[in-house]
Amino acid sequence: MSLAADRTDTTARPAEGPRDLRLAALTKEFATFTAVRSLDLTVPAGTFFALLGPSGCGKTTTLRMVAGLETPTSGTIHLGDRDITWEKPYRRPVNTVFQNYALFPHLDIHENVAFGLRRRGVKDVDQQVQEMLELVELESQARKKPPQMSGGQQQRVALARALINRPEVLLLDEPLGALDLKLRRSMQIEIKRIQEEVGLTFVHVTHDQEEAMTMADTIAVMNGGVIEQMGSPTELYENPQTTFVANFLGQSNLIAGTVASAEGDVVRVDMHGTQVSIPVDRAHTRTGAGWVGIRPEKVLVAPAGEPIDAPGNHMTGGVVTDVSFVGVSTQYLVRMPWGQELMAFEQNTGRRKILRHGAEVDVSWRPEFAFLLPADQDVRAGAFEED
Amino acid sequence: MRRGRFTGYWLMLPAALWLGVFFVIPFYSLLATSLYDPEGSVLTGYDVTWHVANFADALREHADELWRSLWYAGVATVICAVLGYVLAYAIAFKAGRWRNVMLVLVIAPFFTSFLVRTLSWKLILADDGFVVDFLQTLHLMGEDDRLLATPVAVIAGLVYNFLPFMVLPLYASLEKIDVRLIEAAGDLYASPARGFWKVTLPLSMPGLVAGTLLTFIPSAGDYINAQLLGSTNQRMVGNVIQDLFTNTGDYATAGALSVTLMVIIVAMVVLYIRKAGTEELL
Q1: Which residues on chain B are in Cβ contact (under 8 Å) with A116?
Q2: From the list A90, A98, A165, which residue is nearest B180 (CB)?
Q3: What is the three-class DSSP state of A60?
Q4: What single string gives the DSSP state of each residue in A94-121?
Q5: Same domain, B24 and B140
Q6: Contact between A158 and A4 (Cβ < 8 Å)
Q7: In a domain, B195, yes or no
Q8: Assigned domain for B57 exists
Q9: Which residue of A has its CA nearest to B205?
């Protein structure tokens, strides 16, 4: 799949140029629950934005409100200066790639892709459809009906059908959910590449954190109708601000501790007798109890007494209680003296033998990788909500 | 296990027997009747004399009723389609938790006999009934105008009696439509009206075609409505056939007329299904 440079010019961009999508105090209440609570969000024009969260977190409802398929209880939706909160879905410069695609079964692929253009009375539809089908490499399938195609092909038809309209915002509702893992990975890269080539704003809803991180420039993690944290994939992963983000996006070790001192740019935390230091911009509380967080791949393990290559927080007295060899890495569970089991992932570089179950080990990590979260947050939030 | 050469035929046997008993034999009997000697009577008996002229005679004498049957049935079917579509659409998409109640109400009239229901229409449309009174008060009808014994009454009866046969298949195919397809049409710049025309209606075609067939075919052969709600000026082919069979004993003409009606309907159905693009129904 590739988009030749000369093809980009054949379909006109919106005259005004791309505009930011802004949601302000957007709220949606259903009869029995509030799906979205006073959401504020700006999606910069031309970016790939992901709304990530477990099922029922309000991400699909948010998307449907932007598409006009759901009316907000309160709040506004703007495209640039244009208020589209109450605009009919068929008048919005917004198109959707539906979950399970929603291709028209009575129309062939060509007519499915042509649908939006024909409704707007565009000229030389056939030419544009053909170019779009070339973009998604389905030009030879134009006269087939959707049920005759594989899931991956249907997915690409759905993408082409939305993309051909050159919407200001393209909404993708769990677009890869029905595909198998390998196909999903390759489609993630394809969609990302198409987004970069067409330069439109993509808003992608997913519950798959890996998918969000692979594709998006910016991720908003949603939980219970609100955004927990927003930022680039690296920001979210390296410096989560809530236990939910720490657990939902990848995995985290969260260890109870008490702030001992907060001076200069370092917060010192007493963690079961060991003092660990955390950079102040990664400490999301300054006083009292808190959760010290560290990603498993940042945790270094070595046989007791051996030096560890990390000039950081050093803890002794660990015992390996589980060893999972997964090829590229080995995942250890290490029981610490205070009873908690820490996860530690180690690349299989071959530098050292894999540790055995029951081995006595020391544990360490560099202070700049740790983060500190307020103790009032649920330590298990987001931990087991993935598929 | 080796399959015998005739295994397939053996497996077809039950269906073939069923068709033989319930279709081929009755049909042969009807066809034979249509070729009886027209001079036969209940007293002298009937012989198959391959008297093909029965058809020409039947058509010459009863072309009016035949034509009127198709015409009334056609009008009734169109009205049923419009009313039935609105009703089926409302049940499928708007009824919510009332859906099952509404479906039961659609079927409820079948709990009473066809004859009784048609007779009650005779009361509703009667000259001193409230409908006529009301329309006369509004001066929409003159003092001496009637509803009974008019095409309006007969067609109203047909519409009433066959409406459920339209609603049920329409509902079945509307109910299967994924609402996301309608949403997708809206998302792709189709106004609700365009979305209906381009997505909902084409997807409900199998139901609409099945419904029109189930309405048109029995309407065209019906005689109860014309007999109870019409006069001699609204006689349909069913009345003629019934009369010829039971009163006159003219089996030959009655048979010829029946076969003719059947051929016309089969031809129309085939044409219609081709035209509607729902060949998979055949």
Answers
A1: 188-189
A2: A98
A3: helix
A4: EEEEBTTB---TTS-HHHHHHHHHHHTT
A5: no
A6: no
A7: yes
A8: no
A9: A106
The alpha-carbon gap from A284 to the nearest alpha carbon of chain B, in Å, equals: 42
Q: Which residues from chain B sit within 8 angstroms of residue A161, using beta carbons?
A: 188
Are the C-beta atoms of residues A77 and A83 closer than 8 Å to each other? yes
Contact criterion met (CB < 8 Å) for B187 and A119: no
Number of separate domains in chain B: 2
Mean pLDDT, chain A, whole residue set:
89
Give me the pLDDT at residue B280, please. 55
Interface check B144 vs A, CB under 8 A: no
Cβ distance of A119 and B180 shorter than 8 Å: no
B183 interface with A at CB cutoff 8 Å:
yes
Euclidean distance between CA atoms B133 and B127, whole angstroms = 8
Burial A2-11 (b: 16+ CB within 10 A, else e): ebeeeeeeeb
CA-to-CA distance for A331 and A324, rounded, in angstroms?
Answer: 5
Nearest-CB residue to B189 (from A105, A106, A119): A119
Read off the tokens for A341: 């089991």
User: Which residues have C-beta within 8 Å of that of residue A369, sequence separation ≥ 6?
Assistant: A238, A294, A295, A298
Q: Which residues of A touch B184 (CB under 8 A)?
A: 96, 98, 102-104
Contact with chain A for residue B191, Cβ under 8 A? yes
- Name the CATH superfamily for A251-374: Nucleic acid-binding proteins (2.40.50.140)
CB contact under 8 A, A98 and B186: no
pLDDT digit string, tens, across residues B54-92: 899 899 999 999 999 999 999 999 999 999 999 999 999
pLDDT tens, residue by residue, B38-58: 877 777 777 778 888 889 989
Domain interval for residue B119: 64-281
Does residue B45 sit within a domain?
Answer: no
Would you list the DSSP string of A171-210? Answer: EEESTTTTS-HHHHHHHHHHHHHHHHHH--EEEEEES-HH
Please tell me the CATH superfamily of domain A5-238, with its number.
P-loop containing nucleotide triphosphate hydrolases (3.40.50.300)
Ranges of residues in chain A whose predicted pLDDT is under 70 = 1-17, 310-311, 384-387
Q: With contacts defined as CB-CB under 8 Å, which chain A residues touch B209?
A: none
Residue B138 belongs to a domain with what CATH number? 1.10.3720.10
Which DSSP helix (H) or strand (E) runs through A345?
A: strand A341-347
Using the Cβ of B201 and the Cβ atoms of chain A, whether some distance falls under 8 Å is answered with no
Structure tokens at B192: 């609700």
Instruction: Mark whether B1 and B68 lie in a shared domain.
Output: no
CA nearest to A102 within chain B: B181
Q: What is the pLDDT along chain B (282 residues), one digit of tens a residue?
A: 566 788 888 899 999 999 999 999 999 999 998 998 887 777 777 777 888 888 998 999 999 999 999 999 999 999 999 999 999 999 999 998 999 999 999 999 989 999 999 999 999 999 988 999 999 999 888 888 898 999 999 999 999 999 999 999 999 999 999 999 999 999 999 999 999 999 999 999 999 999 999 999 999 999 999 999 999 899 999 999 999 989 988 889 999 999 999 999 999 989 988 888 765 544
Q: Do A165 and B188 touch (CB under 8 A)?
A: yes
Separation in Å, CA of B8 to nearest CA in chain A? 30
Q: Could you report the predicted ipTM of this complex, rounded to two decimals?
A: 0.81
Residue B280 touches partner A, C-beta closer than 8 Å: no
